Every structure is written in C-alpha cells, then in structure tokens.
TrEMBL record:
The active site is at residue 193. Belongs to the PanB family. Homodecamer; pentamer of dimers. One of its GO terms (cellular component) is cytoplasm. Mg(2+) binds at residues 57, 96, 126. It comes from Marilutibacter aestuarii. CDD domains: KPHMT-like. This is 3-methyl-2-oxobutanoate hydroxymethyltransferase. Keywords: Cytoplasm, Magnesium, Metal-binding, Methyltransferase, Pantothenate biosynthesis, Transferase. Its EC number is 2.1.2.11. InterPro entries: Pantoate_hydroxy_MeTrfase (IPR003700), Pyrv/PenolPyrv_kinase-like_dom (IPR015813), Pyrv_kinase-like_dom_sf (IPR040442).
Length: 277
C-alpha cells in the first residue's frame, strides 16, 4: 500500500538529494553538517537528523594525529567514505579531495569516481582560480561539487597558519568574486571557512547555491563543525573561536548532535561569540 501524502510527511525524513539542497536554501531551511569518519558515528549523526556529513581531510589531524591536512591521501578518504556510507540512510555524504588530488582535472576525476563509488554523493575541493576548470570538468561528468573558500587549510604553507581570510575590503571583494565564479563553474554548495560574518552574509545573498559556514557567522545557509571539536575533544592545538562543545550540554553523542542540529536550524548557532566580526 502506498502512503498518501499528508501534513505529517516531513521532507526532512527523506534522503537528501543535490536538488534538495538548493530547495532548502530557497525555502530558508538551514542545513546542519558535521564531519564524520566511521560508521558508528555516521549512524548516530544520521539518526539525530544531521543533513550532511563530510569525510573531511581534517581526518589527517583528528584521526591520524598529523599537524596539517597535507599528508592525507585519496586512499584514506576513500576508506573512510566507505565506512561512513554504511552508517547513513538519510544524510548526504560529501568527501574531500585531499591535497593535490585536485591539482589537475584528470586526477580529480579519478579520485572523485572512487569516492562516489564508495558511497559519496558529492566531492569537496578547496579554492577557485585554476580549480574552476577542475570544478567544470567534474560537474560536466555528473559529479556534484562543493567548493570551499576563505581559509583553505590545504594552503597552510602559503598562508603561514590558520587565519581569518577576507578581512580587508580588497580581500573581501576577491572572495565575493571567487564565490560567484565557483557557482558559475557548476558547484552545488560552498563551504566558507573563517571569514568575517558580514562577508559571508553578502556572499550567501549573492548566490543561489547554499553556503555552509565554519567560523563564517550566522548568515550562511548552513553550518559545519569538525565532529571531535563539537564533542569537546582536545584537538592538540588552540581551540578556534568558532568551536562549541555540544557534548557538555547534551550529555551523549546523540544528544549533542541533536542539540547542534536544532541550534543551527533555529539560528542560535553560531552566535557572536563563535564568529569573527
Ligand atoms: N579539529 C580541527 N578542527 C577544525 O576546524 C579544523 C581542523 N581540525 N583541521 C583543519 C582545519 C584547521 N582549522 C583551523 C584551525 C585553527 C583556527 C584558528 O585558531 N583560528 C584563529 C583565527 C585567528 C585570526 O586570524 O583572527 C582563532 O582564534 O579562531 C582556525 C581554523 C579548521 N580545520
Ligand atoms: C572543516 C571542514 C569544512 C573541512 O574541510 C574538513 O573537515 O576537512
């Protein structure tokens, strides 16, 4: 028997699709995203209503204990993508192209195919510039792409540390141009990391694709945090301003994920204390 549609059919209970993300933005529904690296946490986050999970190259730091994301390989991300995929039934799985795997279109395609075949629904890559060609190459070959601008951790050697980006007017204008360019290249979503709240809000208003902030203020269409950070684990370095421990108030991993999802949806996270002015 087919269930008839009713007011009780919440679209939030259906698996997320790429078109669903753009619809969420149009309808003003905020997206809650967390990183995740294994099936056990994936099941818990999925059940708590987390919309998107990211197998981020942050796994190099929080899982492997390295001091940057640069040593992470395509095989590492593919392995964790397969693990996470087995734990999900509703959340959309995004996998990070690690350092240099997106250096040219052919390499990026090969890695992205491996991630989609392991269960990802989208791949993420850092930057604009020559990466625009990579985005177009992937999107033309039916691979949904999430772009990532602002603080791009794979640029840590050039940047000299993990610092807020787009602080002066010229840098903010460049960031806004890059954001328009990744959308024009075909990106379906955009992560904005460590940018002043006003700049992120302006970019969010400029674009039709959802923006997902981390240290980018409350004006984005969604938020992401590293799982270990929102569970209060010691990351081995100074805790960034945007990190909030949701386990402290939740009392369990499931409650922490639920509290995070609700705080994002209701616009209570991030507040000014967890953003850059
Ligand atoms: N555990 C963890 N959480 C993350 O969010 C994260 C990683 N690892 N690894 C990869 C990158 C590195 N990230 C970081 C790391 C440090 C800061 C940080 O301390 N930022 C300063 C900004 C200072 C400024 O420029 O004003 C801060 O005080 O928040 C930000 C992002 C984000 N990503
Ligand atoms: C922090 C998020 C956005 C990320 O890129 C990662 O986990 O690698």
């Amino acid at each position: 028997m087919y269930a008839s549609p009713s007011k009780d059919d919440r679209p939030a209970d259906k698996p997320w699709t790429v078109p669903g993300l753009a619809a969420a933005k149009r309808e003003g529904r905020k997206l809650a995203m967390l990183t995740c690296y294994d099936a056990g946490f994936a099941r818990t986050l999925d059940a708590a209503g987390i919309d998107l999970v990211l197998v981020g190259d942050s796994l190099g730091m929080v899982v492997q204990g390295r001091d940057s994301t640069l040593p992470v390989t395509v095989a590492d991300i593919a392995y964790h993508t397969a693990c996470v995929a087995r734990g999900l039934s509703r959340a959309l799985l995004v996998s990070d192209l690690p350092f240099a795997a997106d250096a040219d279109p052919a390499r990026a395609l090969e890695a992205s195919v491996a991630f989609l075949q392991a269960g990802a629904g989208m791949v993420k890559l850092e930057g604009a510039g020559h990466k625009l060609e990579v985005i177009r190459h992937l999107v033309e070959r039916e691979i949904p792409v999430c772009a990532h601008l602002g603080l791009t951790p794979q640029s840590v050697l050039r940047l000299g540390g993990y610092k807020v980006q787009g602080r002066d007017e010229a840098a903010a204008a460049r960031l806004r141009e890059d954001a328009r360019a990744v959308q024009a290249a075909g990106a379906s979503m955009l992560v904005l990391e460590c940018v002043p709240s006003g700049v992120a809000a302006a970019i969010t208003a400029d674009l039709d694709i959802p923006t997902i902030g981390i240290g980018a203020g409350p004006g984005c269409d969604g938020q992401v945090l590293v799982l270990h950070d929102m569970l209060g684990l010691d990351s081995g370095h100074r805790r960034p301003r945007f990190v909030k421990d949701f386990l402290a108030e939740g009392g369990s991993v499931a409650a922490a994920a639920l509290a995070y999802a609700e705080a994002v949806r209701e616009g209570r996270f991030p507040d000014a204390e967890h953003a850059y002015a």
